[in-house]
Structures are given as structure tokens and as C-alpha cells.
Amino acid sequence: MGGPGDPPEGTPEGGPTGGGGSEDEYGSVVFDESFVRAARLQEFSAQERISDHAPAVRRTPALRRGLTRQAVILVVLIVIAFGTAIYMGVRSPYRATPSARDPEQLRMTVIPLAPDTKVPGAASVRELYRHSPAARFGTAADGITLPPAGRRTAHFSDSQVVTALTTVKDYLVDSSLDPDVLTGGAVRTVRMLVDPGQLDQFDQSFDRPAMDGRHAATGWLVRFDPAEAELADPHIRVRGTLNAEETATDTLEVTSDHTFVYALRPVGAAVGDGARASLFTVRRALHFRFDRDDLRNHQTELLVSYVQAGPLSCSADQSEHLHPLLAGQTATQDGPAGTDPFATGSATALCGALAPSAQPSV
């Protein structure tokens, strides 16, 4: 009987015994069909060797071990997706597009209004306001009111129109009501609201002011000569209107027309101790433009600034500061500053008469 590891017929003749004989080292190797196909050398059959006079063996082509077709397709798709992501990041339609036009320079006109008589004054600021046309005006920022709701346009939402209106209100508050600005101090809060394309003009108006219709500091804001006048009352009276309209698919324009009335006194003088206060009136008609970048950045482009202010003397240079005539003072009679019609780029000097009805009747 054969051993437990032998086939039923027993150990083949000449083969290793199951006992102490040496074990076949290739006994566990299975030469299946895939193994045979993968072999680099294959033996020709007897018939092939007879008919073709070929060598006993032939070399088979190596198996291609590159990427499969599916893997290649996957790599290509990944590359395409990655390239598309980069392209969309560079050319995304949601990026802010540059403005189609450069901002224009602000065109400004400052007209001094000269009184025919002495400037009226009073020891009581409240008494001055009560006897003036500003008696029913609003006070400070409360006097600058926005139009009623429902302001959307064809290409701008209600919130965008409100943003434009509130930016203009902020500009009016900072440039017409801020005590630091009014007394000739810092102008940074106003400058921050100006479109970057107009900042060179803005800065030049304060570094080198001129009554040339382009570079008067008083065309951008209201400020008095700090050596001459100061506020007698911080509660400035205001009344006016704001209007917004769409002028192009990417442009909103806002017009403002407000009258500001200030109570002033001589510098260092306390009203009631022999000094009297007087009223000073500034009417500002401004035209603003907004593109979508301005709306996002809470900035604006000023197109036109038309200012009437008095009581002033026509001959004084009002480009850097306003030089108000105070209680008891009169306007000089030498007329406005001369204008050279042959000098290009300069504006024609203008001056108006301040109507008695515009002054308090005290």
C-alpha cells in the first residue's frame, strides 16, 4: 500500500519516494495556460520546425505593461478638469470687470454772495435761526433725507440704488457737517469716498488750490478759514433733495441739492460776552456717478459741484477756504477778482448779490 502522500497507484517508477527521498522542488508549481502564454521563450512544435526550418525556440513579444485604456481616459479627464478650473479662475465672469471709462475731472463753480448791508447778528443763535428762512430746516444729518422706497431700475436692484444714495449722504455729511472738516482740519474721511481715478485732482485741490474751475478745495467740501471764524452752534440746519436714476446699463447717477445754514462767530469770541453770532448759508448742487465698482467700494465719482455761499466778499480768494463776513461786517466794493480772458484753463470770476430775504430779520 502506498503512503499517505502517494497517488492510489503508488509512486511512479523512478520517482522520489514518499519516505526519506528528496522532495521535488517544483512540485508546487502549476504551469497553467496564462503562465505558458506569458513565457518569453516558446518551443516550436515538431511540425513547425520541419516546415519552417526554424530554431527550436522563438521569443514572444513582451506583454505591454503600460496604463490601461480606462486609466488613460481617467488621466486625460483629470487634466482637462484641472485646466478648466484654472481657466475659469482667470476668466471668471464673476470677477469685477474694469470700468469702461476713466473718471472725469470734477467741474466746479464757487459763487460768493455779497451782502448790500451789514451782516445781521445776535447774541442768541436760536433767535437767529427763528428769524431766518432756515427756521424749519432739519438739523445736521437728519436734514438729509433719502427718497421713498421702490427705487430699483432696469439694471440695478433696490439695494444698489440705496447704496448709491447712502454713499452720497455720507459724502454730504462728511464734507458739509463734520466740525473737523469745517474748521480746516483733516479731509481724509471725504477723500476715502472719492473714486480713485479722481484722487490726483482731489489732492492737487488742497495742495495747490486755485479758482480755475477744477482745483478749488471749496468745490469738494465746505470749510472756513480757521483764523477768522468758528462754529457758534454745532447743530447745522439742512434742507434739500436727493434723486437717483440709471443713465446706462452699468451707470447710476445721483443729484443732490441742499442748503446748509451755519451759525458762526469770530475765532476765540464767546457769543453773549459782547460778540454776536451770524448765519452763513451754502447751497451745494452736486452731481455724482456710480459704476458697479464704486457701489461695491462705497465710493463715488463727482461730476459737477455748483456752490453758492454768503455772506462773502467778491474780491476774496475762496479757493482754499471760505472767508465769511461776520456780524456787523460789510462786503468790500472792489468787485470780484480780475479774469484774464487770454489765459487758458482759468474760469471766469463770478459773484452774486445776497438778497436781504436770505438773512435773518433781527
Describe this structure in words.
The chain is built from 10 helices and 10 strands. The protein has helices at residues 33-38, 46-52, 69-90, 125-130, 158-176, 179-182, 188-191, 199-207, 217-220, 292-297; strands spanning 41-43, 57-59, 107-115, 138-139, 229-231, 237-248, 251-266, 278-290, 301-310, 352-354. A hairpin with a 2-residue loop joins β6 (237-248) and β7 (251-266). Strands 3, 4, 5, 6, 7, 8, 9 and 10 form an 8-stranded mixed β-sheet that branches. A two-stranded antiparallel ribbon has the order 1-2. By secondary structure, the protein is an alpha+beta fold. Residues 18-22 and 92-99 have low confidence and may be disordered.
Main sheet, how many strands, which sense, barrel? 8 strands, mixed
Shape: rod-shaped
Total beta strands: 10
**Count of helix runs:** 10
Residue fraction in strands: 15-25%
Low-confidence spans: 18-22, 92-99
Alpha-beta content class: alpha+beta
Radius of gyration: 45 Å
Topology readout:
Elements: H1 33-38, E1 41-43, H2 46-52, E2 57-59, H3 69-90, E3 107-115, H4 125-130, E4 138-139, H5 158-176, H6 179-182, H7 188-191, H8 199-207, H9 217-220, E5 229-231, E6 237-248, E7 251-266, E8 278-290, H10 292-297, E9 301-310, E10 352-354
Parallel strand pairs: 3-9, 3-10
Antiparallel strand pairs: 1-2, 4-6, 5-7, 6-7, 7-8, 8-9
Essential attributes:
eight-stranded mixed beta sheet, rod-shaped, alpha+beta, single chain, two-stranded antiparallel ribbon
